[in-house]
Amino acid sequence: MDIHRCRFVDYTPHTITSTAFSHTSVTNRNTPNDLRLAVGRSNGDIEIWNPKNNWIHELTLPGSSGRSVEGLVWCTGEDESPRLFSIGGSTYITEWDLKTLKPVINYDCNAGTIWSIDISRNQKKLAVGCDDGSVVMIDISGGFGSLEHDNICQRQDARVLTIKWYENDMLIGGCSDGRIRSWAASGDSKGRILSTMRVDKSKIESTLVWSIIVLPKKKQIVSGDSTGSVKFWDLEQFTLLQSFNKHEADVLSLDFDVQEEKIFSAGVDRKIHQYNLIQTKSTTKWVHSFNRLLHSNDIRSMSIFESKSHNWLISGGVERCLVIQSVQNFYDGKYKKLSINQQKSNVLVNELKSLVVLWQDQTIKIWRITDGKYKLISKLTLNDDENITSVDMNDEGSLLAVARLSSVKVFELVEQEKTLKLKVQKIRDDNFDSLVQGGKIVKLYDSNKLIVVTSDEEIYKFIIDNDAKTISLDDEIELLESSNASKARISYISNINNLIISPDEQNLAISRFNGSIEIYSLSESSNGHLVSKLTSYPHLLEFTSSDKLVVMNEENKIYEFFIASDSKSLLTPWSKRNSEVLPKQFLVLERPQGVFVKGSKLWTYGSNWVSYFDLSLNLLHKEESKKRGREEEERKDKPNGDTEQNDGEDVDEDVEDKSYWITTKYRPVMKVENFGLNEIIVVERSQFSLPHTPAFNLPKLRI
């Protein structure tokens, strides 16, 4: 087996600018099923992560050029789905529809550029701090899509860099003039400034109060500023209680645990510091406990969630990766870095033409690999600002479909004889543009046929005529009605999360977040049928043959189904014997990012591992494995016995007949795909090859 290691794909993740959990911490209950983490990026994308079952990247809300996400908040009511709000470099507050991935409303706060946002404790009002020194309150109690002006607080001259609610009655803001101000949010003095506190001034430059948190139980305010100071203030008397100067640069983010006994601070100097509350009989005071250096660049945001079963401290910033660690075991606990994560892949491999395709933001790049060398043969940049959601290429490499939520475009790729580069020509069809307003997923099949999944979860089939330069509607696939009944009150529970086409191009398989796996015919206008409804989330799908489908769920378990509606058995013989006895080593791996079939082998991979299962062989059970191990030892002990040496990293003839194989040689993995008769390609992107901005230079201790 020849493996092509491909490291030229210049994918660069974007800076993490903000994070927010959908629920507040509750230590007396288990983690809610509908808990989600929103991660904002500097390119305007918002990622929705499910933290349960090893962190699943479920959705990406596409942004647009020049629109960084600078703040995120969730509104989680008792009888409604969680609502997500964002701000970013404008005067608008955006509420998102997680079902369609589109904004529901862009509300203009009629003040300056918004710098900060927070939600009240009763989840009925938002407050935003603006560039012109005003603080605007917005009423969101009207439900989904409802934002109404409530009040503009008393203005002052400095921009409000951070804003926090105290209960539902007061607003605390950190300003660019080194002052902390409080405004009344209710009562007769609503909107008026109640008090002003001043932090230490820098001799060189103006002091900025970047971050504030409010401890309602302790009735204290904690502030972090550009001098590196973390200060504790009395919320009733508005006086300074304690001050720590442990950071060597700006403090950009603060957070606290549910008991309000641990404070975490982070910023430009890359370190996360912890402060603990020490209580004696007569006094209570905060002490600096310890710090950890887990990031290689500025930390822009931190979020904490605690429950009976979990406690997470999430941090992210310029390094572009999420760092996940424990709140309770912060000092020496294990941590996880989600760096180049491709659960939502943006890489395509065309086996027939030896092409590798990458898309990011508004740009698509195509490389050709010949004789072990690569060459960039096409680069396409779209005029519109909106980010791309999906790209696909037909097997012949002659058509390229590009989807965004506002439009779907089809391009013809013509190879130039002299330069061997690809000439890109758009197929312009006004009728097609009027029929399809945008798409989440596009798929090309059977040379000139196109499938589009719209933002409203409708699936259309089109036929592309290269000669006439037309794209005509063939049919609409009537989807089965999906039940939304679920304990998890999330609006996109019935959305499509996977869509694949069978090898004979006769059937279409889709899976949904609610566990449904459905099959639809592409050649006949017949109704689809439900193959199965899993109790767990179907993470990946792949056809092993025209009548068999493999499903990998959120627990890394593999099931193989017969797809025919009249099949006597649902599970295949291999799945019946092996699905519940998969190796423990495989079940505890990081989330798989992709799967494909080559011969009898099912290949799957994650960000730091590659594995395969031979579906023609049964897996060894524990007893069989121990027995074989003893036989191997006996054989090796014989004087003239043959010995095999395998480091567990290279795929060669010695391990071709094994039922299961895994390696961690390749990392970080972006894509693994079939690349020929006896070849596969592994696309990697080393963390060291990413472009880096200069980081804060911490003093080095040389020994």
From TrEMBL:
Residues 624-641 have a biased composition (Basic and acidic residues). Gene3D superfamilies: YVTN repeat-like/Quinoprotein amine dehydrogenase. SMART domains: WD40. Residues 624-654 are annotated as: Disordered. Pfam families: WD40. Residues 644-654 have a biased composition (Acidic residues). One of its GO terms (molecular function) is RNA binding. GO terms for cellular component: 90S preribosome; small-subunit processome; t-UTP complex. One of its GO terms (biological process) is maturation of SSU-rRNA from tricistronic rRNA transcript (SSU-rRNA, 5.8S rRNA, LSU-rRNA). InterPro entries: Haem_d1_sf (IPR011048), UTP4 (IPR046351), WD40/YVTN_repeat-like_dom_sf (IPR015943), WD40_repeat_dom_sf (IPR036322), WD40_rpt (IPR001680). This is WD40 repeat-like protein.
